[in-house]
Amino acid sequence: MKKILLILMVVVFSAISFAEGRVDSILRNKKIRVGTTGDYKPFTYYNGKDYEGYDIEVAKYIASEIGVELEFVSTTWKNLITDLEADKFDIAMGGITRRTGRQLKAEISRPYLVFGKCPIVRKADEQKYKSLEDIDQPGVKVGVNIGGTNEKFADQNIKSAKIIRYEKNLDVPVAVMKGEVDVMISETPEAMHYANEYKELASPMTANPMTKSQLGYLIPKGDNEMLNLINFIMDEMELKGIMDKLKRENIK
């Protein structure tokens, strides 16, 4: 009996010793899977054929540094954490806000950009919405994407205006242009992007946003080896000026 128990213990400890970590799995499979929503310009956008944006370029750089193939996996803001927990991808990237609720369920990389919540409005209304108080008025319709921090901010701060929810983030600025909503709750990089891309839109509060937050990348809970690898690569990108170059090229 003791001999059998000893054999079982050896087998168990051997299995633990040789358990493959995520980084080892990525290297063995020669592929890193990146989950991204593809609906948040200028960080991640699926154009019908390919993904593009700042975080897409960072993902390409990470894959190149590790020496593996890059696979993009489509996800949604609502399912971002559950898909990560279900091992549908190795890392989530694409304009993801660092916040406590996410930190409790996943590891979050070092920050790479400071930003804040601000509105996107029609150009004709640029002087009308210059504060949260201006936005939160009866009769004002506020558009947000379901499952993201924009919706969370609206739920916490919009009491008098009407909140209109959209499944896809890309649909909200279009709704502003069409007059379906008056204001889109957005973030400074996205607001600046749309104001530059469409003459019908404006971003009146990018210089004085309603909040301050940081962006980072999500990694499965407890995977410190993967977290350390991503943070190391990000530090190297900053040191070499690669981050600044990609920001100039993509965040306009």
List keywords for this structure.
252 residues; alpha/beta; D-Maltodextrin-Binding Protein, domain 2; 2 domains; six-stranded mixed sheet; 14 strands; 25% strand
Query: Might you state the CATH topology name of the largest domain?
Result: D-Maltodextrin-Binding Protein, domain 2
The CATH homologous superfamily of the largest domain is called: Periplasmic binding protein-like II
Helix-strand pattern: HHEEEEHEHEHEEEHEHEHEHEEHH
How many domains, in number, for the residues? Answer: 2
Mean pLDDT metric: 92
List low-confidence stretches. Answer: 5-18
Supply the CATH architecture of the largest domain.
3-Layer(aba) Sandwich
- Basic shape: elongated
Rounded Rg = 21 Å
State the secondary-structure class. Answer: alpha/beta
Helix content: 40-55%
Helix segment tally:
11
Strands, count: 14
The CATH class name of the largest domain reads Alpha Beta
The main β sheet shows up as: 6 strands, mixed
> What is the distance, rounded to the nearest whole angstrom, between the alpha carbons of the first and last residues?
70 Å
Q: Could you walk me through the main structural features you see in this protein, from its secondary elements to its overall organization?
A:
It holds the Pfam family SBP_bac_3. Belongs to the bacterial solute-binding protein 3 family. This is Cyclohexadienyl dehydratase. It is found in: Cell envelope. One of its GO terms (cellular component) is cell envelope. The chain has 252 residues and is of the alpha/beta class. It has two domains: 151 residues, D-Maltodextrin-Binding Protein, domain 2 (3-Layer(aba) Sandwich); 86 residues, D-Maltodextrin-Binding Protein, domain 2. Helices cover 41% and strands 25% of the residues. It has eleven helices and 14 strands. The strands form three sheets. Strands 1, 5, 6, 7, 8 and 14 form a six-stranded mixed beta sheet that branches. A five-stranded mixed beta sheet has the order 11-10-12-9-13, with helices on both faces. A hairpin with a 4-residue loop joins strand 3 and strand 4. It is elongated and about 55 Å long. About 6% of the residues have low confidence.
